[in-house]
Amino acid sequence: MEVSELRIAVKSELSASEHDDLEALVTEARWNQNAKDWRLFLQLGRIYAAHTATSRIVATTATLPYGERFAWIIRYAGPKTWEEADAAYYAAPERTAMQPDPARHIARSESWLIRPVGEGQP
Questions:
Q1: Is the overall model pTM greater than 0.85, yes or no?
Q2: How many angstroms separate the CA atoms of 75 and 67, rounded?
Q3: Are 47 and 60 in contact (CB under 8 A)?
């Protein structure tokens, strides 16, 4: 699929078929979101959905209020540790070639590792 085939939309509500698409994404990615989480995202923030030409949602992100700060929550399930994957991203030629460098907008960066509910305590 070409990236140009996707349409990004800010969602203020979700149809039944869009809920089905989100459930499929959750299952495929082994996320732990449920319908209550999506409702909370809609109530407190925004959901951005990438739709195919047939209007199927194939990717999402959400923004929620966090005061004057910005938090980006990512799920990583690759073969490397998070630290190795993060370092490889910042060292990648595609990232170092970005102009203007997005790092100029970051006053401070923090990484906190979290676990999905039900995976036990550290």
A1: no
A2: 23
A3: yes
